[in-house]
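re: ur question from yesterday

yeah so i grabbed the chain u mentioned. its 325 aa long if i counted rite. heres the sequnce exactly as i have it in my notes:
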Amino acid sequence: MFKAWVLSKSEDGFQAQLRDVDERELPEGDVLVQVQHSTLNYKDALALTNKAPVVRKWPMVPGIDGAGTILESRHAAWKPGDSWILNGWGVGETHWGCLAERASLKGDWLVPLPVRFDTRQAMIIGTAGYTAMLCVQAIARHDVKPADGDVLVTGATGGVGSMAVSLLSRRGYRVVAATGKPDEASYLHELGASEVIDRATLSAPGKPLQKERWAAVVDTAGSQILANACAQTQWGGVVSACGLAQGMDFPSSVAPFILRNVTLVGVDSVMQPLSARRAAWAALADELDANQLERMARDVPLDKVLEAAASIMAGQSRGRMVVTI
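ran it thru and got these structure tokens back, copy pasting raw so excuse formatting
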């Protein structure tokens, strides 16, 4: 038996419960793992509070991220005692996730824990940091250099945003952080932001082409914020879009793309191939500042996960929530 958060839906309604689970209830997998740390991402908060149809199979153990050690393995690449990281692959949506003491997973989903990180540090990074690195790598692939101009990060106090601010500033970019939390400006400056702006300046409908300002953008918001970010991106710039905090719609036009040669890059972290995951985690191990990680971190015990998820949905969180299992 082990402890796990279990989400269920029946005629009586939705329920999120921390309860004992029999190991025999675990779904099929070729590795049995001990989870030492997990995280709370926006997607986890949506699932735990039943605010969006994240879960596609019931009952479900949420937790799209995890890190820990292998207990049993039928996979050639993994043996008992190995340390691992998991991000995505539909875990917490269609396959039981990592807000639990144990999980049954597929070895092909796992990335070796970089020597530089322990499992807690890996989960401060989590899907948020891994996604932020994918966005930064997309900007670099399109040859946007620090000398080309400012880089905008939207949703900057969130997990992806915080990580993107830190990573970009360490690469030498001048980062402009957009947030709806002006009282967090000092936090963003500590992470490396050169300027902090109110997200309201990007939230209202605007012209299809606006004053050129950004050499590149990391957008976590979608909707009107993404549309305005594209409209303000300078000729030849690139916009990495990875989130939908404001909405899934995109009220824009083709003007930035055909008149300014702007590139809009969609960044999905869930189904990235293993080679891309390993490269992203290797870059994170090489570039992230451990002091910056601690600035972003808030530790949450397993039994307080539901309250923490509610705070995310209420917009009362910043940085990264690390769940100690």
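noticed a couple things. The first strand starts at residue 2 and ends at 10. also The mean pLDDT is 95.
anyway ttyl
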